[in-house]
Amino acid sequence: MNAHLQPTGSAYFIQQESARQERHTLSVLVSNEPGVLARVIGLFSGRGYNIESLTVSETEHEAHLSRITIVTTGTPSVLEQIKAQLDRIVPVHRVVDLTVRASQLGQERPIEREVALVKVAGTGEGRAETLRLADAFHAKVVDATVSHFIFEITGKSSKIDQFVAVMKPLGLIEVCRTGIAAMNRGPQGM
Amino acid sequence: MTDTDNRMTGAEIVLRALKDNGVEHVFGYPGGAVLPIYDEIFQQDDIQHILVRHEQGAGHAAEGYARSTGKVGVMLVTSGPGATNAVTPLQDALMDSIPLVCLTGQVPTTLIGSDAFQECDTVGITRPCTKHNWLVKDVNELAATIHEAFRIAQTGRPGPVVVDIPKDIQFATGTYTPKADHVVQKSYKPKVEGDLNAVRAAVELMASARRPILYTGGGVINSGPEATKLLRELVELTDFPITSTLMGLGAYPASGKNWLGMLGMHGSYEANMAMHDCDVMVCIGARFDDRITGRLNAFSPNSRKIHIDIDPSSINKNVRVDIPIVGDVGRVLEDMVRLWRALPKKPEKAQTEEWQQQISRWRARNSFAYKNSNDVIMPQYAIQRLYEASKGRETYVTTEVGQHQMWAAQFFGFEAPNRWLTSGGLGTMGYGLPAAIGVQVAHPEALVIDIAGDASIQMCIQEMSCAIQYGLPVKIFILNNQYMGMVRQWQQLLHGNRLSNSYTEAMPDFVKLAEAYGAVGMYCDKPAELDDKIAEMIAVNRPVIFDCRVANLANCFPMIPSGKAHNEMLLPDEATDEAVANAIDAKGRQLV
Fold first, then answer.
1. Are B228 and B277 within one domain?
2. What domains does chain A contain, in order, with CATH numbers?
3. What is the mean predicted confidence (pLDDT) over A102-128?
4. For B451-567, where are the alpha helices, taking DSSP H only?
5. What ipTM was predicted for this assembly?
6. What are the residue boundaries of the ACT domain, all occurrences included (chain A) (predicted)?
7. How far is A15 from chain B (nearest CA, A)?
8. B117 touches chain A (CB under 8 A)
């Protein structure tokens, strides 16, 4: 029965992780009270879990509820443990593993989107090329002078990665990204 | 109650809220940021304050109080160093699931963040070592926060909570919210009822077992006296052998016929072998800790596992189980006993007969055996004599951490729950004396013994002064071998017997130390005199420090060396110097 035994979140047995690492997106509904984000982040650092992306904002103002979206990686048992540990935090109302939910719903993955602001330098003839490429990515100009543009771009993380890579040789100055916002497809809520 | 009755200062609110939550004793130490609360304590008689000598002592005393009564322990400390000194007992209570409410003073809200005198980020520092914590910034929320603190500390998996109260909030006038009216945090709702289908599946699996074992832990004791009663009933009905973790001792009586002794690193041979070879394991209120499992990938390889725990995160954390049941041990056992009684066909006795015989053979191995001596007191012998002398009394035993703790667990038999208090998860040296003080406060007539080591006792020795002040006749029984015995044992096992800093060269004269505090000091180094001296110690109605000189180099066996499996135990009669030196391989050396 225990042939599938794996080391988990315990740091005691330092063994090679043999199970496959998976990347999952979690949605965590919390009371928006002081310190709640510190509790969530402290859990990840204290127990040695990974955070690839973390997004948080109040989503229901009257109820003072915030929704935290966390992208993390781990073996299936570690991911199960992360969910259980998050659920133990007193101001946490619900934890949903959107990746698991998507596969239960017969979907490939949850919808994941990110917003980025990308500042690019550009003068003279290069400007036309920059704008043409930005247009191809459906990036919107939100600020510009004769020597720069700021683009707003929305999409999957991979699309933003690609846009940033394309802008690099054209005079990329800085990038700011929101991290991932995610939900499952279909009519049901989390 | 009229509105004016409900208007009071923050400090008055604190006292009223404690009283409304049934608090009779508070362990604490005053300081600048809690003076208004201390002023209120001075002006009332309902709650007795026990003045400790160090905030760590307050925490462990509150833990001892909580564990021996089943009530919530309460500690009160000041800001800054008061709060940081409370961190050790908070983490201790978190790991051992002890309900504890810690009230800390804080600098006035206007000074928070200014690096004020005795300021620290208490909620930040205690966040990972509490179940939950609060900084109260509005006096009108103070009462509700304290009520909520008590609710969260004692429900679900119990644990410590901190309420940080700035000094200006203690002075401010606000409205008291009665306990019945307070708004609860909706996101916190522990699941206490087990899934009946899972319980049914568990009972069916248990009925089919040929080699069953019950593995119980502190969760049974935390669940309350009813859970202990049901556990004993379940053993009676099923006739399954039963073992327990360090934290669970006493839930099933040590004199019971199905008792295998404690399991784990220093557990009995029969308990560990039975865990390894069983086909159905029923884990009740325990958490597959590393001291219990040994090498994980060799842990009980051929068994189907049932796990009852109130904390969903304990399920599948270290060991994957086949039937998880999330719920309160007492509630689940109630269902389990009922469903077992209702089984259409109970298993035949023959089904487990071979297993019982195998267990008898393991038991005959007598794994706790040691070579006694007429010249020097063996530590195991000292515990056995202490146990014999305490029989028939209402006895509570606390310990510090190390060899003496393991010998106490091996050789002191516990017949009832809540009588054995030890720092299991965190392994806090210095726990025993203040915990004994907490027990004695709750049970003034009982015999309370702190079985200690010569090194551990010095970590919170200042609490002798507290015991004297309140006339608490705790008995400190030191197994004095002049070493940090467990450290020395590990140095022998892992580091070529190079005894780096584990020998205490400047030992205090414990008899004079006792006398200096105003207690009774006793000394014994002869096996022949031990019984009389122990009787004398028990007869004295004052605090006693008993300096029991024991064999210096005795090791604690049996032992599952780090990185080994349950069936690779090192037994006392096989533990030659060579076997000890080679017991742990290179991989095991990295482990703790």
1. yes
2. 22-104 (3.30.70.260), 111-182 (3.30.70.1150)
3. 95
4. 464-469, 485-494, 510-517, 527-539
5. 0.91
6. 25-100
7. 10
8. no
